[in-house]
Structure formats: structure tokens, C-alpha cells
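note to self: dont lose this again. the chain is below, predicted strucutre after it. 212 aa total, dont forget to put it in the shared folder this time
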Amino acid sequence: MIDRVENTSTQSGDTVRESYSARSEEYVELFGAMTSTHPSDRTLVSSWAAALTGPVLDAGCGPGLWTDFLAECGSAVSGIDLVPEFVERARIRYPDLTFDVGRFEALGAATKSLGGVLSWYSLIHHGPRDIRVPLTEFARVIRPGGGLLVGFFEGETVEAFGHAVTTAYRWPVAELGRELVAAGFDVLETHTRTGIGCRPHGAITARRHSTP
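---
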């Protein structure tokens, strides 16, 4: 199946939100539990979280599964998502945790207030024209030395494709790493994985470097 999309113009947040809202029940059924995640991803997230100090934000928390996972790892964590239906579901399922509706481009957290941000497949709808905006916002709220972990679709070139919900992007690890550096991070580790029937996966751990 050919899923490449030639039009790589930036999508609005409203388009992404409305697209996920329309399919929120289907999404939760397919991906709303930790059993849908890869064991190596759980290992990576838990080891990343263990090295953090301070509050953690799950940016793009969806129905809250990774937020709860981070809480079980011992993190003081909260979640934020663009999709109200996901936030409502997360609040019901994990009543002891905090979830809010919001955009990554303008987080409510104070500058240098967080020990880390998890952005697990939550930037996949940001193209090369706009991905630095949320990355710069992550850099603003993470304290120097704090951590960022990004999960994404990996590819040989930056390329839009027809994701099941709405247009998404593949990124080469090196190219996304350069965006992280430009936003104020030092890249620590990169990970890739391929599997039969699955799109190539990438992950990058990064550290917020000190600023003047």
C-alpha cells in the first residue's frame, strides 16, 4: 500500500484534535492499555524515568496509560493532551492522577519547573515547518539537566504519510536529533526498531543543556 502524502503543509491543531476525537473510542480500544506497547519501549521509558529528578509531564498522554506507567515507576507525573475525549477517559480510569487538555505549543508549566517530558508519539503530526515550536516549549519548561524522551515514526527522509487518523511524519533519527539540539537539548541515546507489519520506530533520549 502506498501511504506517502505529497502535501506536507502544516496541519492545524484543530484538525488533529477533531480527527482523534472522531475516532477516540476506536483508538482507546486498540491502544489504550499497556499490553499494546512493546516490551523494549516499557524498559526504555522506565530506565529514562529512573534518572529524572522532579515533576514529569506526559505530553500527549492520550487515555493515560503511559502517565500511569510513569507513576508506577515512581515519577510525580501529570498528563496533557489535545483531545478532550482522551483526557476524560484518563481522568476516569486513573482518578489519582492529574490530566488536562492543552497544546504543546503553550504549556501551563513554569519555566524550568519540570524534571522531564515524555513525548511518546505525540509529535508525529508536526512537520518540519513547525516541530521546533513544541520542542522549544519543552526546553522552556524542563530544568537544566532534565530529560526529554521522544518516540516517533522513523524513516530515511522526513516524509508525510497517510496515518490512519490524520497525516503524520516519518523522521530520520539524525534529522530529529538536529531539531532537538537546535531547541536546546543534548542528544544522549537513539534507538530504532523494525518489525514485520509495523512501521519503523525511533526513540531519542535528550538532556536539557544549561542556558545562560
